[in-house]
UniProtKB/TrEMBL annotation:
Name of this protein: GPI anchored protein
The species this protein was found in: Pleomassaria siparia CBS 279.74
Keywords: Signal
Top-level taxon of origin: Eukaryota
Signal peptide bounds: 1-17
Length: 242
């Protein structure tokens, strides 16, 4: 049985068994065949993945095409880079788990980008949607990174306890825990509908909602995408780049 795993410790890597999945954030959500993930590099603080459609999957059933690079940093920062000869796009999202929101910045550029630029927005609630990718290569890198991180955490905990003063030792000592890996629920994919600022800023004195939407649509011309959520636009752009 496939298991959905999330990394809930300080480390951005987890030991995964064959056919396990890893969850990642994608702007605007996604519907279709789950992508596959190859682990490119992994260490105790970051993991780089190559995400693509499963071999043999029809392009109408999976929008990830030839794939793109995806980086997870310290379990809460998600970065994607995607480009072809005419356009490039990347996003950086930092998940504040305590505040239950995600601060995202999207950059679109290149010769075919109708309205290149950088835009930021904050997502919350159901707008923070994760997708599962089946890990098909590189599990050994995740295992090695997780073991390295756990060993470092254990060594630091032992050092902290050994160097406590006698006064500090008067009470019970709590040691740091090692890396923990827990099964996460498969989050229902939701469309990110965050309100963002269009690259052409609407005047504060009464620009209508339809005019603001039109300004954002201009940025999406190459992809035929409409709407006011630039993150959803970025996600749609990525899925249609191929």
């Amino acid at each position: 049985m496939r298991q959905s795993v999330a990394i809930l410790s300080l480390f951005a890597s987890a030991a995964l068994a064959a056919n396990d999945t890893i969850d990642f954030f994608f702007p605007g959500g996604y519907e279709g065949a789950d992508p596959v993930a190859s682990v490119v590099t992994a260490n105790p603080t970051s993991t780089v993945l190559r995400l693509a459609c499963p071999t043999g999957t029809d392009s109408t059933e999976c929008g990830f095409g030839e794939g793109f690079d995806y980086k997870i940093i310290s379990t809460t920062i998600y970065e994607m880079t995607m480009s072809d000869s005419d356009i490039n796009m990347n996003f950086h999202c930092a998940h504040n788990t305590q505040a239950a929101n995600m601060d995202c910045t999207v950059s679109i550029g290149g010769g075919e980008a109708n309205d290149p630029g950088v835009t930021s927005t904050v997502l919350s609630g159901s707008q923070i949607a994760f997708i599962s990718a089946t890990v098909t290569a590189g599990e050994d890198l995740l295992v090695s990174a997780a073991e390295t991180g756990a060993a470092a955490s254990s060594s630091q905990a032992s050092l902290d306890v050994a160097t406590l003063s006698p006064a500090a030792n008067a009470g019970p000592v709590s040691t740091a825990s090692s890396t923990t890996i827990a099964t996460a629920i498969a989050t229902a994919i939701a469309t990110a509908t965050a309100s963002t600022t269009a690259s052409t800023t609407a005047s504060a004195s009464g620009t209508s909602r339809s005019e603001a939407a039109a300004a954002t649509t201009n940025a999406a011309f190459r992809y035929g995408v409409e709407g006011s959520a630039l993150l959803a636009l970025a996600g749609a752009a990525a899925l249609n780049m191929w």
